[in-house]
Write a structure and sequence with these properties.
- The complex is a heterodimer.
- By secondary structure, chain A is of the alpha+beta class.
- Chain A contains nine helices and twelve strands.
- Chain A has a five-stranded mixed beta sheet. A five-stranded mixed beta sheet of chain A has the order 4-10-9-6-7. A two-stranded antiparallel sheet of chain A has the order 11-12.
- The longest helix of chain A has 34 residues.
- Chain B is mostly helical.
- Chain B contains 20 helices and two strands.
- Chain B starts with a helix and ends with a helix.
Amino acid sequence: MRRGAIVRMVAIGVVVGVAVTLVAVLIPWLPDSASKEMDRITFTYWFATVICIAIFALVAAVILYSVRTFKVQPGDESDGPPIHGHTGLEIVWTVIPAVLVVAIGVVSAVVLAQNGDAGTNPLQVRIVGQQFAWRFEYPDEDDLRSGRELVLPLGRNVELELVSVDVIHSFWVPEMGQKQDLVPGTLQRLVITPTRLGSFPIICTELCGLGHSTMRSLVRVVRPAEFDRWVEETRAGAAGGDSGEGVFASAGCGGCHALEKAGTNAQIGPPLERAELERAAEEAGQPLEQFVEESIVDPNKVIRSNYRRGVMPETYGDTLSQEQIDALVAYLAGAEE
Amino acid sequence: MTATVEHETHETPHVGTHYRPPQRGILMRPGLIRAAWVAGLFFLLGMYIVVTLRWIAGWDPVYDWELIVLVGGMVTGPIGFLLGLGAFDYWLYWIAGRPTRPEDHSGHGAQTWKDYFRVNTDHKVIGIQYLATTLVFFVVGGMAAMVFRAELAQPGMQFMDTQTFNGLISVHAALMIFLFIIPAFAGLANFAVPLMLGAPDMAFPRLNALSYWLLPIAGIMFVASFLAPGGAFATGWTSYAPLASEQPFGQVFFNMGVQWAGASSILTALNFLVTIITMRAPGMTFWRMPLLVWANFTTSLLVVIATPFIAGSQFFVMFDRVMHTSFFVPDEGGYVLGYQHIFWFYSHPAVYIMMLPGFGIVSEVISTMSRKPIFGYRLMALSLIGILVLGFSVWAHHMFVAGMADWLRVPMMVTTLLIAVPTGIKVFSWLATLWEGKLHLTTPMLWALGFVSMFVIGGLSGIFLGSVPIDIHASDTYFIVAHIHYVLFGGSVFTIFAGIYYWFPKMTGRMYDERLGKLHFWLTFVSFNVTFFPMHWVGLVGMPRRVADYAEEFGNLNLVVSIAAFVLGASVVIFFYNMIVSWARGPIAPPNPWRAMTLEWQVSSPPPIFNFDEIPQVVAGPYEYGVPGARHAVMHGGALQEAKV
């Protein structure tokens, strides 16, 4: 190979490499990290990126150089040199990629082990997924429940225990990197250590049916003192009996139904405004409260037109207590405040 | 081999004269009309079985229309269709001890366009049947993509409900995978492999015809699922249990469609294996086979070993629904993750089923168009074997976040990353083949070079996904969508286009329009990258896949993606215009327009009815470019006589 060829090819490779590096650096490819785990994922990501930029620059340089230099002149019907191979080269491009991928593998394995380590005394949180809502329970805090948001203290290891009551869902907070499927019939586990205050979206990333794209919630990271205060307040709220509003949120009704006073606008199931419910009860020929309770416990008995049978879980009669159902019925169908 | 040769010589008198079958009534003649009424009859038979059994058992309702459609429409009806078409006639006459009639397998060659709508045993006709059919489903699947890209152009819901959206993405993927990429490769190989081996046809021509006709059944089932109450199957092409067993009836169209497509794949693969092992021309040792043949040999092994697994997984899901079994019902002892393990045990090798034939095509094109021997031929073949073996040990990398046994993740990561080594060998060998060559930048060569560069991007994003911690962040996001489209579109589809342009002169005897071909390439190449590259970003920063609605912040970029997707869709129009007009009126193609060395180019374009008027004697490797006086094979008169003895 002539020296000029090598110089020109290296030049093309450097140009491509710089261009790709600019694309890699100038665009914020990953969300700003909000957890220790995401910091490590970001490190692994950049480790792999550096290697990949080098490989891409090499391949692009050879293709661009070859197309420019070896393009045939019109009318040239001759063949190229009969080179059948080169054992040395073939060994080189077998061994070097193998070494590089093993390096990525080692880094990844170490990061994986660190990201799965909950340390001593982690905060236990149980996450329950169902079509199409999230529910959060704190077994360490007398089984405190929260349907509206996941509240986590800054800087403490959190060990999430994930369960699903129906189909497979997947828990993901982009800023925290970690992701885990919720598999019905099994208990899954995930570790998160929040490092940044703020609210971040919780997204379901496993197609779970009609309302998959609206199955979202929020995680709010607060200072430890504020977390304790939140626990106290929420527990006090719960001690006074379940409010209908609270049950509506914690049972995930808003995942599918629109209700203005609860601030939800999902359209999987029929809207639950009082006027709508009255009309439906009239069509069904039942008193309003009886109709609402029956529709919670046995949702497939009466189906409004334009909505599908078998979408709403039939399990609320089991998962909610009678007091909770009463509170919910009162919230939806009780006397107007 | 001998049996096949006797069979060929037996039919030789028909060669050259159009064989006219004795006239039977239009209803009784094998063909689409008989297929229609026999399919109807068999539907009634299936209905009768269901109704009778339900009546005997006393189940209510006796007329369960879902079961009637399932048994009558998706099992007995298609069998009736094949029977009416004549796919089984020869075997049935033989079984019944009656004289077999040559027209029952329609002889060889196609005289008119009508012959492409019949059961035909000529591998060249079947190859074109495969390609035409798969391109139709490519268009249908592409139009599904256009519709849901219109919905995704803006956040919020505009044109459809979420069930329709989920149905469109699922049908899009199912058609592109099972009805386009996998069978399009089978079609190209069907045409090219027997020619490249120096064989007169495939080992089992009637089986070959049957495996083609199983395919439209699967395709029609996928598309017809839109007519089902509740809409098309809407659980993605992965169709995870338990969601899939509680979805509306459309889901069953996927469960059963996969069975027919899978049967087609398995039969074709067996045919390729036997053909490649037993029907090589004299002198064609394994180490003298073109790399396309090597690629189809390894692909066929993958298909035969892996495909039964997806068949099983879909049957289990369907049984959970219709027979109330509990394979994947957790409350009744079912194993939810079992579905994913079985599914991916097929569907990961399926990625290589969709990739290895493309590697073969690109090796042919790059070597020929660079006028140089392929660099490191033996290592190229061995790396295919390496991918075949490693390909069976990586399935669980699709399940890093699925909740399977923790210890399984690191070993699966290591094998996944190691598969980059044989793949890298192939890429570097192609680059070395270009080096100091005489590059003819024809349309097939542009597609091949486009493939190498796009596939490298897809391969590198695969390295990210192979690393478990990064995968945990990126899985089930648009990053995955970007990755699979760089691999399957920038990878597989680019090679399919390379192959179609490369063999178009051989298939049709006419040349395509080079300018339109290049326009098609550049338009596709640019719009492809604008469509799929931004998806890497939206995925990593927080947009999950398979959502009909998404956060406002991704609105502008999704609009760009949608517009580019429409351009990408429009670029296909140029391709079809070029193919159709060139086939009808293009300039007559010489036997060997690319001055290639492999055997298919040593015969006329299109090839003679039994491929070779004399059996070629293979004397060297297939890529001896630049070696003075070297030839892959010699044709000498009298070889056919010797073979007969």
